[in-house]
Fold UDP-glucose 4-epimerase.
Amino acid sequence: MTQVLILGGGGFIGINIARRLLDDGGYTITLADKGYRGRLEEYFDADERAELTVIEDDFTDPRAYDKLARHYDHVYMMAAIVGVNRTLEHPEEVIRVNTALTHYTLEWLQRAEVGRVVFASSSENYAATTDLFDAPIPTPETVPLTIGDMKHPRWTYAVTKMLGESAFLHTGPAAGFEATVVRYQNAFGPCMGFRHVIPHLVQRFWDHPTDEPFRIYGADQTRAFCYITDSVDGTVRAMETPAAAGEIYHVGNDEEISLETLTRTVGELMGYTGEYEHAPTYPGSVGRRCPDLTKCREELGYEPQVPWREGVERTVQWYRDFFAAGRQPDDIGFEPPERFSQR
């Protein structure tokens, strides 16, 4: 059995990695996170939960790592504060938490016995490059990384992810573990919370008065949304492909669509028949983003399987069912969606 630790195992991507590995079989899985917010019950039945080792603690505290085993074959480092809205509201916490998680995880790795670590990074790292410079879109892994405006709080997340990439890639050889970086590209799917563009759109349409135009923020901006099962598949491939050690991969989907197309699609699925109007984008939001998947395809054999519209249909249906059942975000520990920023 392959011994697996998922740091950040209560988060959206981490728990979906656990779901995939349980389905595949052959893994002993430990989830470690500050909290699980009811997600274990959403994703696993009682028998499946019994197969998981679940550790709940604050891993910005170095003492929490004493609860971990000494040996793991694979460590998925998914733990972080994520979301543009959090960088806008509490940039100091994004810096503190994400830096502490990187630092103390690396300290633990240097005394543990670990085969490979996959570090979860982000397309935020190169978002400003495509806006400010003549960078190619779709964008490859080799593009220089850029901080758009050091005074703008939204870039605090990218700063911590750049630090993490460098720290894991360069500490690994010295400490005796392999490290691989995956940069996620707008992963989405059911049960991802509400402070993300697609579930937030669902809630806006659910609550929207029928006699008022629906506002589309940043209508001409583009993104490439990746359904969660594809994000997980790319991550597992990055972990289990021997030649991926020391490499960086853009894991996502390269179907680039406008936010207007996304908004109107969600509106159609929600049965909205009213008018739309354009509205200014959120401050600091980038104009275009789409990954070049050539390296991921050629080296990992990765190919996204879920077209963006199919993924949106699945996700919208889950959230419609959630609201139709009379459930609220805090029922499973989700934060409310106010002051949401589109990524």
Q: What stands out?
A: The two ends are 39 Å apart (CA to CA). Residues 91-111 form the longest helix (21 residues). Residues 213 and 332 are 31 Å apart (CA to CA).
